[in-house]
Every structure is written in C-alpha cells, then in structure tokens.
Amino acid sequence: MTTVEKNKTDAHRSAPDSSHSSPIPPKAQVERHLRAQLAALTGGLAPEDYLNAWWDWYLGVATEPKRQAQLAHSAYERILDSWQFFARAAGGAPLPPGGGDLGFSDAAWNVWPFNVYARAYANWVSWWQQALELAPAPDSPDPQAARRSFAGRLLLEAASPANFLHTNPELLNKTAAESGQNLIRGLKHWLEDAQRVVAGGGRAPGTEQFVVGKDVAVTPGKVVFRNRLIELLQYAPQTAAVYAEPILITPAWIMKYYILDLSPRNSLVRYLVEQGHTVFMISWKNPDAGDREFSIDDYVQFGFLDALAAVRRLVPHRQVHAVGYCIGGTLLAMAAAALAADDDRSLATMTLLAAQTDFSEPGELSVFITPGQIGMLEAMMHKSGVLESERMSAAFALLRSRDLMWTPAVDQYMRGERPQLNDLMAWNADGTRMPWRMHSEYLERLYLRNELAAGTFTVQGERVNLAAVRLPMFVVGTETDHVAPWRSAYKVRGLTRSCDYTFLLTSGGHNAGIVSGPVHPRRRHRVLTWKDPATTLSPEEWLKSAPRHEGSWWPAWQRWLVEHSAAQQEPARAPATYVAEGAAAPEDAPGSYVHG
User: Fold this and answer.
1) Are 508 and 478 a contacting pair, CB within 8 Å?
2) Taking residues 306-327, what's their average pLDDT?
3) Beta-carbon contacts of residue 470 (< 8 Å; ≥ 6 apart)
4) Cis omega before residue 435 (within 30°)?
C-alpha cells in the first residue's frame, strides 16, 4: 500500500473535534480570557510589544549622550530649514515643498500655506526616521527595531497633512469646485461602510461586477471529490491531446483559490488547460466555529493527501506535477517530505509559488511574530473558534498604512470617489477565516520556532525532513513580496536535495507578481537552474548571475513543465462524474465551498 493509499484510508477517521485539545490550567484560561478582552480594545495588537520597543529606544537614547547630541543637532537643522522655508514661501510665489514620496507632488501643494505644512511635516518625518533607525552596536543587535520602526511609521503616516481637509489643498479645491458635493458623497460612503460592518460583512462596494462563477472562476470544470475540508476541481480540457502527468494545485487557505482563476485573461488555470495540461485545483472550505479543531495535520491529510489520492484514482499510473502557492506551498513541502520519507513516488515535480519553508526571516510580518502577539491572536481565535478575515486584512493594511488605509479613506470619504476595482482587487476583498487550532500551530511552530527548517516539524506524529525531497523543483519568488520575501523563499534550496532545481524571481508583489497573465508588458523575471543537489549562491550572488528576461514568467514555467512531462501525449480526459451525497447531479466548478 502506498503512502497516498494509506493516508486515504486514514482519512475515513472521524473529523476533528475537541478531543484534540488538552485541558489547560484555570490560571491559563483566565489569562486567555483577559487577553481576548484586551484584543477587542487594541484591534488584536499586543500593546506590551510596542511599549517594550519604545522603552528600549528611550533607554538607548537616555544613556548615550552622543546619540542625544546627534539628534539635537539634527532637530535644530530641520527646525531651521522649516523656518527658512516659511520665510521664503511667505512671499507668495509658488514654492515646491519637496518631501519625496510623501504625497505632495501636486502643484496645489506649492502654494502658501500648504507648502509650509508639507515642508514642516517632511522635516519631522525625516528626523523621526533618523532617530528610530540609529543602529545599535554590532555586537548587541536590537530585536525591537522592526516594531519600533513599524509603530513610528504608523504614527507619522497618520499625521500627514494630506489626510485632513483643512490642510490638503487638493481636497479644498475639489470641495470648492463641487460646492461640497464630494463631502456629501463621502459621508454616504462612510455610512454604507459602517452599516456593512455592523451587519457583519457583505460584498464590498465595486465588487458586484466580479461574481464568482460568472465573471471570475469561470474556467469550465467539475467538482470531482469533496470532504469536510476541500472540494477538488478538475477542469475540462481545451485540447484534443494532453500531457500524461496531471497538475494538482494547492492554493493558500488564507485566500480563496480563484486568485489562480480570475478573469480569463488573468487565469493561470485557463492558460494551463489551453496549453494541454490536465489541471486539478483544491478549493478550501471557509471554516467556521465548528471547524475550530482542524490542525495542520488535518490540512495535510484532508487537504493535500486526500486530493492527491483522488487525482491518482482519476488519472491512474501517472505521477503528478504538484504546485503550491503561499501557505499552500508550505503545506506541499511538508507533504512532499512525508511522501519521500516513505519512498512514495506519486509526485513528478514540485513547484512552489511565493512560499516559505524557512521562517527565520519573514520580512515585514516579523512585527507580528512575537510570543505576546501570537498569544493575543490565540486568545481571540479561541474565543470565536476562528480568526476572522477582517483581522488578517487589517494586519496587512497596517504594513502599508498610507497606501491601504489613509489614501483609500481620503479618496472615499473626502473626495467622494469609490475605487474602480479590477478582478484581483475584487478577489482581495473576498476574505477567508482561519480555524483556531491550525492557525495557532502555524504561527507558533513555523514562524516562532521555525520547526520545518530546523527539521523538528512533525506530520501525523512523524518528523519530516525536507532534505528527503529530491524531486525536480521550480521555485518562484516575487521582488516586492512583503508576505513571503523572495530571499526567504529562496532558502528552500539549502533545505532540499533536488538535483534539478530552478529558481525564478519575477517583478511584482505577492499576488500581482504571481498573477501576471501569459503576456505582461511591465513584467520581467530572472531565472537560474542547477543540475546538482548542493550548488547554491547567496541571494545577492544569484541576482548577479541570473539572466534577466522581459515578460511574464508563465511561459517559462510552462516550458519547464513540458520538459518534465512524458513526450507522448494522451487523449484528453473529461472531468470525472462525481455526485456528492445528497446531490442530484454532478456539481460544476467553482463548486460550493468557494461561496462560503
């Protein structure tokens, strides 16, 4: 019996329940309850982390006279510059305030007194950045630096004169031109949004034109398997002959799967089937409080391994090209290591898209990865059973507060302009929840303890070692990814032992870089392949060595898939006929879980 077959048999065990959890002492229960109450006041942020960061900064300045003198001198220079600018601007002639990328490029900011506001703010921001970024001694690294910088940036961006009507000349000009109608529209928008929050959610404005199954997620297919956690979609072939090896895609469960099947022009799924591939996709259930006990083990078993077993039944005697995106790639790496340990050769290749396996450098997300912060999230999730999608969205918005919080707020509530959404933006508004147990394990075991890279992570009680993975691998990172920084994704090379390893770096961010379409005039990528299990380069050396190519990375990956597929194609396979229990007929893609 193969590992996949064995795990398929194991999947018939009862669904997760509260027996997974061991009792906790009364004192810990009280502490968890108090943390949950505090989280309701702080928006889920752990205040002690930021208080400690500021206290460490204050002590560092208070005990170093040299730093005090540097900051005092810098403050004097900036105050003097602000006054000198004030004197020149008072003459009335247009005078650009400068400020780089702080949002003062419009000509309206060149006029008194708004250029003075902007110049003073830019000097203030510059001084605080200098103060917060003063490096500690090399032999005493400052673990609080990222949180200190993060908190300081939030305060600075909140105080920008561009955020307020009376200090923003663009808003004043627009209000005068429209006789205040923009403010009336903005109030209407604010009331609509507040009503939606009070009502418990609903579709965000502008997303109505992107209906799942009608405008996005429209590639034809069928639901060919379902369990309590996933639906498995098989897409209808678009060619008479197909490559023998099917593709199984494991998307992240912190997002709806259809990011890879957006509008037809942006659909990775459609592109693959049009190129002659048989494609299967996991569609995760959006968990509710009743699913609170789902664990990482359950996601490996009920998710990837069950799906793999179903694909192997539907396309027998063929290995599978496995693809994982974001956290789905992390899950795929775990499962691949477990399969390799049992000498299970179900997989032909493994592709990881913007996925981490080493979490020692999680990038900007590190500000949220502390014992206190994880304890706060765990308390919130334990109370409700899930982490609501709004919490996850808010965390990512804080990392880009000017672009994702203040600018949209000004545009909608003061300019009175709703954004014109595209398919990717509409998908981003369609959030998902995280079950308590899985997300707690994920944060603590992977982010906090980095067990997968350390070789101490266990799946169903057995330790998994990524060094057992020797499959041909194709790994994609994105240049401006703040969720899975490409240098972090790159580290999987040192953890696995692939003798056929390709790393590709594409322009764009975590989502837009992956969803680039087959043709994209503003995309570029670099790619390099090794044909042995050990050769590697530092990220900086790799950047210098990897040749640059213009255009989307999709065709390069598709060519790689063809090179790793059997030369002889086979007649196309129609999606299998599967009728779920209680259903009258087979269900078409995108299925029902995506609507949860």
Assistant:
1) yes
2) 97
3) 340, 496, 497, 498, 499, 533
4) no
Whole-angstrom Cα distance, residue 448 to residue 213?
A: 38
Q: What's the distance, Cα to Cα, between the start and end of the chain in Å?
A: 36
Active-site hit among 326, 353, 374, 379: 326
The reported pLDDT for the residue numbered 541 is 96
User: In whole angstroms, what is the distance from residue 301 CA to residue 3 CA?
Assistant: 11
Alpha carbon distance 516, 503 (integer Å): 17
What token pair was written down for 77?
Answer: 């220079």
Distance CA 123, CA 106 (A): 19
Q: Hey, where are the domains in the chain?
A: 49-151, 221-388+433-595
The beta-strand segments (E) located in 188-246 are 221-226, 230-235, 241-242
Structure pTM?
A: 0.90
499 is catalytic: no
Structure tokens at 564: 């790793």
Q: Residue 60 has which token pair?
A: 């560092």
Angle in degrees, 0-180, between the axes of helices 47-62 and 371-384, rounded to the nearest 10: 160
pLDDT in tens, 506-536: 999 999 999 999 999 899 999 999 999 999 9
User: CB count, 10 Å around CB of 276?
Assistant: 19
CATH architecture of 221-388+433-595: 3-Layer(aba) Sandwich (3.40)
